[in-house]
Amino acid sequence: MERIKRVAAINDISCIGKCSLTVALPIISAGGIECSVIPTAVLSTHTGGFENFTFKDLTDEILPIVKHWKSLNIKFDSIYSGYLGSIAQVDIIDKTIDELSDSDTLVLVDPVMADFGELYKNFDKSFPEKMKKICKKADVITPNITEACLLTNTPYENGPYTKEFVENLIEKLTLVCDKKIVLTGVYFDEDKLGVATYDNETDKINYCFTEKHEGVYHGTGDIFACVLLTALLNGKNLETAAEIAQNITSEAIKITKEEKTDVRYGVRFEAVLPKMIELLK
Ligand code: PXL
Predict the structure, then answer these.
(1) Which pLDDT value is given to residue 261?
(2) Residue with CA nearest ligand 1 atom 6
(3) C-alpha count within 13 angstroms, C-beta hemisphere, residue 271
(4) Are 138 and 107 in contact (CB under 8 A)?
(5) Would the CB of 43 count as within 6 Å of ligand 1?
(6) Mean pLDDT of 228-238
(7) Which of the four, 8, 14, 127, 235, has the lowest number of CB atoms within 10 Å?
(8) Out of 3.40.1190.20, 3.30.465.60, 3.40.50.2000, 3.65.10.10, which CATH number does the structure's domain 6-268 have?
(9) 159 lines ligand 1 (CB under 6 A)
(10) From the alpha carbon of 45, which atom of ligand 1 is closest?
């Protein structure tokens, strides 16, 4: 029996409002990968739309966890980082990547900071410059358009976008991460939304689109990143992994939209896990 692959998922626990670790654990596990976790903070809800959420910063816990894991000699096939609880965590995650990875560890950095032209609550303007430090170490980064603009000092624009805008952004992102780039939230018209991928090995930009759903759906960036990572760890190439992640995320949004539930609580990714497992075969 082959050893099961293992990811170290570095992300917050938002106790309500499906995102970060509450989507990473089920998605990565359903994809047949063991998901170990380093919680960056514990919040009563995510910060996007609920008032009076609690926030417990876990910055001081991260390196002791890493030190203990090091002493256990655990192999990590991947390190995945998402929402960080403090700016100081960037240097700590940089160190964590060095400590826990070896030559074949896939490092995916989702530079979670912002969307729709705005930084999330709790992040200040100095965050994007700092975030570049761990993007440099990544094999794959998955910014949305806002995060890509912040990482490249590009003025944010509302969509629909031109191919020129998107491909310029990707070119600038290759200076932030010189390996694989998956830019999310790309749309050229109001009907279709998707991702642009850039792979340094082929030097090619590829696009994948699905139906565009109106509205703001929380946690979908995290779902996308986790499905993408799971597909990559199951041996899919970047284009195929992005296509699976785009399809699964879009399908989960579609079901949520039909159910007309309060979108702050997250999307119905549970309903599409069987399809994800099928697509990973
Ligand atoms: O889904 C991104 C995310 C993750 N974690 C927390 C958030 C957000 C987005 O708002 O608030 C705590």
Answers:
(1) 87
(2) 46
(3) 13
(4) yes
(5) yes
(6) 98
(7) 235
(8) 3.40.1190.20
(9) no
(10) 12
